[in-house]
Design brief:
The chain is α/β, with parallel strands linked by helices and 335 residues long. The chain has two domains: 172 residues, Peroxisomal Thiolase, Chain A, domain 1 (3-Layer(aba) Sandwich); 155 residues, Thiolase/Chalcone synthase (Peroxisomal Thiolase, Chain A, domain 1), CATH 3.40.47.10. Helices cover 32% and strands 23% of the residues. It has eleven helices and 13 strands. The chain has a five-stranded mixed beta sheet, sandwiched between helices. Strand 12 and strand 13 form a beta hairpin. Helix 3 crosses helix 4. It is globular and about 60 Å long. The structure holds oxa(dethia)-CoA. The site of oxa(dethia)-CoA has 20 residues, from helix 2, helix 6 and helix 8.
């Protein structure tokens, strides 16, 4: 019986720091509002000409994860790439990573589950390993949000929250029972697909049509978010799916050594922390520095927590995410 474990972690964020004050020069917003509602102080944005893109950042994070796993590209059997902001409409970023890293003609699978993308991707990797099909899976979450945000007052409810970056994990076969990825739990509720979405261009509203309409108000190619509705659903689903994971493994909140929530909003993380009565050192947050990086947020946070020595052998680590779709999920890991 195979199990899977995370054998290496890495992350990369662009150098360009964009503070709340920087944003207030582009739109009607301010540091106080952003910090009070979201906890975010600054985020990273790709700068034109810095060479970064979703796949390039993914490669940078992946190289670090591989090195820490003490593996080479030849050891990887599958790439699972999660993003909502691929470099191209198609193909997805997985094949770009495969090419840029000079990998064999291994399969590359793209995951489109937005903020839950990394948890979905880890679950996919875990299943391929547990069935014995693959030994090492490279999982990447990467986002280039800044290239697609409405950086005017019209878009401030969305654009102040999101940032760019990438995180990666190598998931490796193990035969140690009761260790590694113990279980993953995934959900979706398409009834709310439009509450956090980017509708166009899409196959029923294609580019020439949008150009012909010349829209000025309801611009369909900027992301839309019904913030309060998303917030209310997020706090409920985060708690449900963490409980589901704990119960499946006969664990309770006191057993959690480290909760790494998707960095959606510091207020959401704090709400979840209170619900599970967790102390500050049981929950890792870095949204203050990076904003919400969607599929990249959990692997960036996991990688930073590990670098800072906050995750140790034998720890129970819980990953939990909620986002567009709606989709949500958790992973329970015995490190
Ligand atoms: O990661 C995927 C999941 N995403 C989330 O979990 C995000 C969940 N939602 C949220 O985090 C919050 O809803 C937001 C941070 C997005 C917004 O906070 P809110 O407390 O729900 O604010 P709101 O949208 O109700 O807006 C309150 C006011 C409005 O003004 P009026 O109508 O009261 O005059 C907005 O126009 O704040 C205004 N506002 C802003 N003001 C300054 C909205 N955005 C901004 C801004 N700066 N950036």
């Amino acid at each position: 019986m195979y199990t899977s474990k995370i054998s290496g972690l890495g992350h990369y964020v662009p150098e360009n720091i964009v503070t709340n004050n920087d944003l207030s020069k582009m739109m009607d917003t301010n540091d106080e509002w952003i910090q009070e509602r979201t906890g975010i102080k600054e985020r990273r944005h790709i700068k034109k000409g810095d060479g970064n893109s979703t796949s390039v950042m993914g490669v940078k994070a992946a190289k670090i994860a591989l090195e820490r796993a003490e593996l080479t590209t030849d050891d990887i059997d599958l790439i699972v790439f999660a993003t909502l902001s691929p470099d191209m409409y198609f193909p997805g970023g997985g094949v770009q990573v495969q090419e840029m890293m000079g990998m064999r003609t291994i399969p590359a699978l793209d995951i489109r589950n937005q903020c839950s993308g990394f948890v979905y991707a880890i679950s996919v990797a875990d299943q391929f390993i547990k069935t014995g099909m693959y030994k090492n899976v490279l999982v990447i979450g990467s986002e280039n949000h800044s290239g697609g945000l409405d950086m005017t007052t019209r878009g401030r409810g969305v654009s102040v929250i999101f940032g760019d970056g990438a995180g990666a994990a190598v998931v490796t076969r193990s035969e140690e029972e009761g260790r590694g990825i113990l279980s993953t739990h995934l959900h979706s509720e398409g009834a709310h697909a439009k509450e956090l979405s980017l509708e166009g261009p899409n196959t029923s509203h294609w580019v020439p049509e949008i150009i012909a309409e010349n829209p000025t108000e309801n611009i369909p190619y900027y992301p839309y978010m019904n913030g309060q509705f998303v917030f209310k659903n997020a706090v409920v689903r985060f708690s449900e799916v963490i409980n589901e994971g704990l119960q499946a493994n006969n664990l309770s909140a006191v057993d959690i050594n480290m909760l790494i929530p998707h960095q959606a909003n510091l207020r959401i993380s704090q709400f979840v922390q209170r619900q599970f009565k967790l102390s500050d050192d049981q929950v890792f947050n870095n949204i203050q520095k990076y904003g919400n990086t969607t599929a990249a947020s959990i692997p960036i946070a996991l990688s930073e927590a590990w670098e800072q020595g906050k995750i140790k052998e034998g720890d129970v680590v819980v990953l939990a995410a909620f986002g567009s779709g709606f989709t949500w999920g958790s992973a329970i890991i015995k490190w």
